[in-house]
Amino acid sequence: MDNLTETRIDGELVYDGHFLKIQRDTISLPDGSRTAREYVLHPGAVVILPLLDDGTVLMERQYRYPLHQTFIEFPAGKIDNGEDPLLAAKRELEEETGYVGGEWQFVTRIHNAIAYSDEHLDLYLARGLKAGVQKLDDGEFLEIFTATIDELLQWVREGKISDVKTIIGTFWLDKLRAGDWKLD
């Protein structure tokens, strides 16, 4: 088929929660037949790759209830309605780690669950970090620590890091460090 586009005919919001919303749409497929698509509506999120002056990376350990385990992750968080993504990244870094970044660069946008969500994550590199005080949200618990890029790569290889945003961010840091990739 030359045209792979699916066209929305109608739809409805079937769940409207505090954090997530679920949409069910009736669509027309490229061959003209109809089917339904259900997906999570998400406002988007930011991921911060916080590189300290000594070349180590500021990381988090956080328990994630859906998988009932603690994960190693980059600082990240949801973009508030109408919020500029860079401002969200700055806010999330300070809230979760207490650090403030002096220099910020957009890295890339990723889509982490394309089969069932419209969520996107904007990755930002933060350098020139200055330590401060964490401002965690109510009910948010996490530990911060530092690691080298080589340690992160090893943990990815060993499966100790399985979070997709953290894997992709680690690969970006490695490519940037090697000079293989450049940021605009």
What is this entry, summarized?
Residues 38-169 form the Nudix hydrolase domain. By secondary structure, the chain is α+β, with helices and mostly antiparallel strands. The chain folds into two domains: 7-41, no CATH class; 45-178, Nucleoside Triphosphate Pyrophosphohydrolase.
What does this structure look like?
InterPro entries: NUDIX_hydrolase-like_dom_sf, NUDIX_hydrolase_CS, NUDIX_hydrolase_dom. Belongs to the Nudix hydrolase family. NudK subfamily. Keywords: Hydrolase. Helices cover 21% and strands 38% of the residues. It contains 3 helices and 10 strands, in the order E-E-E-E-E-E-E-H-E-E-E-H-H. It has helices at residues 85-97, 149-158, 164-178, and strands at residues 7-16, 21-28, 34-41, 45-50, 57-64, 69-73, 76-78, 103-110, 121-127, 142-147. The strands form 3 sheets. The chain has a 4-stranded mixed sheet, with helices on both faces. The protein has a 3-stranded antiparallel sheet with strand order 1-2-3, with no helix packed on it. Strands 6-5-10 form a 3-stranded antiparallel sheet. Helix 2 (149-158) packs across helix 3 (164-178). The radius of gyration is 19 Å and the shape is globular.
